[in-house]
Amino acid sequence: MRDIDLSAIRARLAKQDGTGQTGPAFWRSLDEVAETPEFAAMLHREFPEGASEFTDPAGRRDFLRLMGASIALAGAAACTRQPTEHIVPYVKAPEDLVPGKPLFFATAMPFAGTAVPVLVESHMGRPTKIEPNPEHPFTHGGTDLFAQASVLELYDPDRSQTVMGKGEIRPWSELSLALTSAGAGQKGAGGGGLRILSGAVTSPTLAAQIQGLLTAMPQAKWIQYEAIGNDNARAGSKLAFGDYLEPVYRLDQADVILSLDADLLDAGAGKLRYARDFATRRQVVPGQTAMNRLYVAESSPSNTGSKSDHRLSLKAREIPALAGAIAAGLGVAGAAGQAPASATAFATEVVKDLQAHRGRALVVAGERQPAAVHALAHAMNAALGSVGTTVVYTQTPQANPGEGFAGLRDLVNEMNAGTVAVLVILGANPVFTAPSDLKFASAMGKVPLSVHLGLHRDETAAHSQWHVPETHYLETWSDARTGDGTVTVCQPLIEPMYECRSAHELVAALSGEIKTPLEIVQGFWKANWDGRSASAGAGGAFGKLTDTTGVDFATFEKFWRRVLHDGFVPGTAFAPKPVALAAGAVAAAPAAAAVSPASSGVVPNSSDTSVGGLEVTFHADPSVYDGRFANNGWLQELPKPFDKVCWDNVAYISPRTAEQLGVGERKPVVYGVEVYLANLTVNGHTLQVPLWIMPGQPDGSIALHLGYGRTHAGRIGNGLGYNANFFRYSSTPWVLQGASLTLLDQIYNVACTQGHFQMENRALIRVGTRTQFEHDPTFAQHMAHVPKPDESMYAPWKYEGHAWGMAIDLNSCNGCNACVVACVAENNIPVVGKLQVMKGREMHWLRIDRYWEGSPDAPSVHFQPVACQQCENAPCEVVCPVGATVHSDEGLNDMVYNRCVGTRYCSHNCPYKVRRFNFLLYADWDTPTLKMQRNPDVTVRSRGVMEKCTYCVQRINTARQQAKIEDRKIKDGEIVTACEAACPTQAIVFGDLNDKNSRVAKAHADPRSYGLLAELNTRPRTTYLAAVRNPNTALTPEPAGPATGGHH
Amino acid sequence: MADTLLYGLMAEFTSTDALVSAAERVHQEGYTRIDALTPIPVHGLAEAMGYDDRRIQKMILAGGLFGCAAGLGLQLHVNLIGWNINIGGVYLSGYPLNVGGRPLVSLPAFIIPTFELTILFAALTAVIGTLALCGFPEPYHPVFNVKRFRERGSTDGMFLCVEAEDPKFDAAKTRDFLKGLGARGVYDVEP
Amino acid sequence: MSSPNPSPPPTIPVLGPGHNYASITDKISDIVLQFRAPIRWFLGFVVGFTLLQGLLLAIYMLLFKGVGVWGINIPVGWGFDIINFVWWIGIGHAGTLISAILLLFRQQWRTSINRAAEAMTLFAVACALLFPIFHTGRPWLAAYWLLPYPNTMGVWPQFRSPLIWDVFAVSTYGTVSALFWFTGLIPDLATMRDRARTRVGQVIYGALALGWRGSARHWQIYETAYLILAGLSTPLVLSVHTVVSFDFAVSLLPGWHATIFPPYFVAGAIYSGFAMVLTLLIPMRSIYGLQDMITLRHLENMAKIMLVTGLIVFYGYMMEAFFAWYSANEFEKYMIYNRTTGPYWYMYWTLIFCNGFVPQLLWFKRIRLNVGILFLISIIVNIGMWLERYVIIVTSLHRDFLPSSWGMYQGSRYDWSFYLGTMGLFLTLFYLFIRVLPMIAMFEMRMLLPGGGNTPKDSH
Questions:
Q1: Beta strand A988-992 pairing with A804-809
Q2: Of A332, C251, C277, C312, which sits most exposed with the smallest number of CB within 10 A?
Q3: How far apart are CA B85 and CA B76, in angstroms?
Q4: What pLDDT sits at residue A586?
Q5: Cα A220 from chain centroid (whole Å)
Q6: What pLDDT shows up at residue B7?
């Protein structure tokens, strides 16, 4: 190989060490470090093929051909080929890096106006898995599915890799020059032509940077836009208290909760904490059953609704009236409103119940509801004396909050007026997410200099002159706030994989500074850590910071190390603000609440295959959110909580509306599920949507999910689903009236992992009411006859030592899917693609079963996570001809991949159908970046072998080795399975059943504990704790018979 | 003496009954090295010549018992800690496993392989034993030197063969004797 | 065991008039020894050989891409593969049954059909064996990891698994059938050796005949051994489909977990076996003009056996439904409800028509003696038996305990080409067999001649 100047390399590496980065500096080849021109050239040519020939016509044709081919080969996932890597051993081994032993680093994932505090597992410098940060004062652990999937985003082979200018690859230096000069140019004009567009920013550092810019250029503007933001909530707080405030709920204090179209357990800045607090208030023990009660009135099924004791499905436009009525009932001055006929009983009972629990009651309004309803909610809380107990108000985690849609509208007007000279877009994708009426793309054309910073070369990148690859949050320094304002300093786990820049660097470049993210972030904190400087500005000035025990930090170095280690800056949570209801806040409410236009109810059109007068509501997609995760295979293949559809978005309509349309029940066919296509028309515009009959969807209302219909997402996300933004107007971004549906004579095949939604009167999910529980705590165990061990012909095996087991509390689980993604990430579970899922070959080891109960119009929904139950009398083992699945002496149902020949008999004899088979070669053995993500402790399965949940046996063994080294027994809670760790509600508990004091042993002893299909004498090691609901007897008379699923 | 050039004499008869009675006579005469060759099994023919071979039954029984023992033994050996067997470098060790909580020795499940191996070994012994007892494969036999036998022997010819080795054998006398038994013809069998 | 009552003084003889040793021998051996085969033989052979190419293609795709080229999924992990396996094994039952059991029952009429039936058995078993090997995810390993042989870690096969029982049962059955068949062939091979017109033929047949010369002492040993082999094959032939039925009966799946399976599978096997014998021999006897050796008597007796076994199978269907109700187990109840009214209801009812109603025609002698209709019925029964396995396997698997995991199944194009391909293999082998070996046992036919030797009847 060509001789390289090693001394130069050492020098550079040494420099990197100097920057205080943790973990080894990650570099791909000596050439890269030495920055040889050859390597630079290679980088430029590496991706996409022939990109540098893009300008000359012939070259472009080749390029298009190649892209076509690569998209066609998406299934095969052949992709960027990297050059042979020259490897040299460590000259100086990095500190505390033991090969084979993962390191964990605390950081946070900034996400849509909040942040998820996480610990990142790093194997030899490769971040491989996201774990929760249990020490965090706000979340106390638990992650959501997006955080779990974010690690795949880092390694996404379709990530943008080079700076592009006018479609050509350009060096960063050229752009930074352009930015600096533009910045300088704008300075003169006071920044009149400078506009910065970003998503909701919680980073104090970035906010301070931009504020600095704005103070230097008073005319410049900074717009924060989130397609799924909480504008209405803010407007509501302004209406109520005259200022933008963030309500922070204390669900652990609330006895009665009323949710007005709010999915507070699975959406918004506080969801992790709220889900956890809510679950703690659902723990029932015989004798002492202080349960909270949840009333939900919502415009489409939500995870929160699934946990409610009383769920009322109303059109979004009817909820304000309901809110008004309840408020009036609670004696809120000025409140008025007539509850819809279907909701009168609900309203009166809720009023009674809320009043009965003054000070312990809580009313929450959702982002889909107009500001007036939020104002009402605040007023009701005030009237109930709940402010300070179940809800406190703080400043918003998002730095200088505004109202995104309004801000975006103004920006577009300015762009069209040609007054915008420089537009810098930081990590947002407005061309895709902006409401369609704004025509953002065409407006961008009128901007002389537009710069886009993003992970992908997305729709916005395609319309801007400059595109800069953004550093993934695992690649750079930054900071972010969680829902309560607590700041986490985000540290990089890996060198940027490509020529990436962070928002910090871009803004710095605008103000003519060239700094590394570390310099910027560290600099900010140096200035603020001890409260000396007030320059924090919008970042939020911090007082003098002390550590968790209240002791001052001696030096900045100590402070820095501590906050990096802990993953949060103690004492940065916002203090509650005293609030006073503004006069006239509520007086405005009824007027505003009367949104419902003349068109009320469904208007059957002339033809019977079409109905009009429908309401359209917009929702974040449960898997890809607003589309930012569209190219994430894990999330695309994730069955959504309610329809269990993946790789698509569908339009929900209620069974009654379906009847009026003449749509039959979904047909499960050999390839997925056949659904009908229909034309959705709103004032002249028409969009084709696949109809999904969703029990619990209000009649005459259609729920559309955002985030699909991407055109520049990448090889995975392109061309999936329909784009709901088509109907989104900046004036009415959430609810649209007067839509009409026309059934088309066309069938569309959807990939759905659960084609059948009834329990067929089998005692699978066992649910009882609080009274039933008090009457007989073991009600769940009487729903099926389970043979006792001595009824078996054979003596049961003895398990000395450990006996691993699991318990899943159905009372806590709200079906948020975090555990499923965690399982995928931990166990190298492959993505198989839509067609394979349609054929019934999805590979998820852990799935969440979902069953409806009751009438299709007002059903209640139940979730049940199902993985391998590790039966002691495992039926699968007996039928395996080669002994590829056998029991360990700790009672694990081991799967020996190397021995498996793939007869699939085990799967047939598994009553839980949790075994998954590699019908084809599903694992991606080629894509280099994806290889980096794999968990080295878990085999990557090849074609033709069976696989299934192993209780994360790799984690068990790690713990065992550690215990052996330290010569002690494994402690309870030392082994945490991936699903257990990810669960925000602590529904999953794993441990040693032989240790009578372990949490899992206690859970198995719980009277609610029952084994799924235990009547088959499989003796599962995983048991479920039956769900207990707490209905208001005034609304639902006690069921006469036994609890649901009951049969004898 | 010229007779030494002969393997023996072969007489052809027209019907099975004639052959059987002839065989009886030859046997009574005291000839010991005789054989009857027929295209179909003729019951009582071998007995008529004083042959009664019952070894095959015993062989098959032994084979079956061996198969049964081997089948059950194998499964017990595999499922118990078992003794370790070393056969010419091939090291056979047991591998007891907890399979679905079933006992190591699940006799009901072991019945079937045991049964199948019993049948298999019995059948193999039956065939191999037969061939062995008949001395097959036998590439050469003098009787095929008789043209007549080659033509009819496996179609409809009934032959009786007296070997020259027989102490009572005398070419001329025996030929006459056979003729006297109503043979359709008597042929020399070249060695 | 179901055998027709020992027939009264036969109205129709088992052998046409005017035959003697020579004529029988000529007639049968000439089929093989004549230089050119009838054109209809070529037609049949070409059809089989063409289908065989489909099998090769399917196997290539399977090894190249994986078992995913088939329509299987979770929960329906077995589809055409096991359906066809059971179907072929079933067909492979008639041969040994005819040769062994009917021999023990001293049914003369077996004589002229047992050779062909045994050959059919071997070829059917060969076709069946393809499926257990290729249905696995990693056939290259399955081929030997299923044999009782320890791997380097000392791990052995898992003898509690019905699939291992299958390996033992089917391989034993195949081996014993082959031995039985070859043993029966030896005297006829000697005949062929003596009558072969070419040197090559003489050498090959001679080598195979092992030097058989019809010695009385050999006949004595031979007949004893042959009879004992028949005795051994009798429990064997009954055990094979019993073991195959264990693949299902031993599992806990509703629709599989049933004690009635063994008898009902064995009956079904014989049922389909005789159907296939008819399907093959009816054309065969007309191609080669063997009407006086394979007489209406044979066809009628086989029809009677089909009627009896068909009734047993039908009883099995009724019992499945009855116990689903009687057990009061909601999983079982749903299973039968789903079979009769679920997505695959048409499969179930076609099956009932083919296996339940059509065979009732065989009550009538006129139909039993009508070759055309008999041929048609035999085809229908073959289809019905295939559907039976489809219903048992697919409708039980696709909706089991947890409704969340229910799915659907449909064979892919490679499923079909594999299936038709095995038919091609079967036909090819069978047509080659009748071209190179005597399809009727000559020496046993000779024994049927009055006076000619002793017929089995008056022995002992």
A1: antiparallel
A2: C312
A3: 13
A4: 76
A5: 33
A6: 92
Is B95 in Cβ contact with C155 (below 8 Å)?
A: yes
Distance CA A177, CA A182 (A): 8
Query: Pairing state of beta strands A168-169 and A164-165?
Result: antiparallel
Rounded Cα distance between C443 and B40, Å, is 6
Contact call for A887 and B102, based on CB within 8 A:
no
| Cβ–Cβ < 8 Å for A658, A691 | yes
- pLDDT category of residue A587 using cuts at 50, 70 and 90: low
- Residues 6 or more apart whose CB falls under 8 angstroms from that of A169 comprise A44, A51, A52, A162, A163
Separation of alpha carbons B118 and A189, rounded Å: 101
Q: Which residue of A has its CA nearest to C150?
A: A882
Pairs of residues, one from chain A and one from chain B, whose beta carbons lie less than 8 Å apart: 36
CA–CA distances in Å: residue A303 to residues A256, A265, A524, A816, A849: 18, 7, 39, 7, 14
Q: What is the pLDDT of residue A22?
A: 40
In chain A, the residue whose alpha carbon lies closest to the alpha carbon of B101 is A873
Residues in chain B within 8 Å Cβ distance of C194: 150-151, 153-155
Q: What are phi and psi of A361, to 5 degrees?
A: -110, 160
A626, A654, A816: which is closest to A723 by C-alpha? A626
Is A943 in a helix, a strand, or coil?
coil
Closest CA to C72 of C338, C345, C346, C398: C398
A883 touches chain B (CB under 8 A): yes
Chain-wide mean pLDDT for chain A? 86
A873 touches chain C (CB under 8 A): no
Contact between C221 and B154 using a beta-carbon 8 Å cutoff: no
Phi, psi (deg, nearest 5) at residue A821: -65, -40
- Bridge partner list, A916: A947
**pLDDT tens per residue across span A971-1000:** 999 999 999 999 999 999 999 999 999 999
Q: Which residues of B touch A878 (CB under 8 A)?
A: 99-100, 102
Residues in C closer than 8 angstroms to A836, CB to CB, are 68
pLDDT at A7: 59
Task: Kindly list the residues from chain A whose CB atom is less than 8 angstroms away from the CB atom of residue C136.
Answer: 901-903, 944
Instruction: Give the nearest chain A residue to C253 (CA atoms).
Output: A909
Given this model, what pLDDT does residue A595 score?
43
Res A750 pLDDT > 80: yes
Mean pLDDT of B158-176: 91
Give the minimum alpha-carbon distance from C329 to chain A in angstroms, rounded to a whole number: 10
DSSP C354: I
- Residue A906's closest chain B neighbor by CA? B100
Distance spanning both ends of chain B, measured CA to CA = 15
Other CB atoms within 10 A of residue A180 CB: 17
- pLDDT for residue C276 is more than 80: yes
Give percent above pLDDT 70 in chain C: 95
Partners of residue B97 in chain A, C-beta under 8 Å: 883, 886-887
pLDDT in tens, A149-169: 999 999 999 999 999 998 899
B88 touches A: beta carbon within 8 Å: no
CA neighbours within 13 Å on the CB side: how many for A92? 8
Rounded to whole angstroms, how far apart are CA atoms A115 and C57?
A: 55
Contacts of A592 (CB under 8 A, 6+ apart): A320, A370, A371, A372, A373
Q: What is the ipTM of this complex?
A: 0.91
Closest partner residue to C251 (CB to CB) among A879, A900, A1047 is A879
User: Can you give the length of chain C in residues?
Assistant: 460
Residues of chain C in contact with residue A883, where contact means CB-CB under 8 angstroms, are 155-158
Residue of A nearest to B109 (CA): A878
The closest CB to that of B110, out of C159, C180, C195, belongs to C159
Q: Under an 8 A CB cutoff, do B95 and C22 touch?
A: no
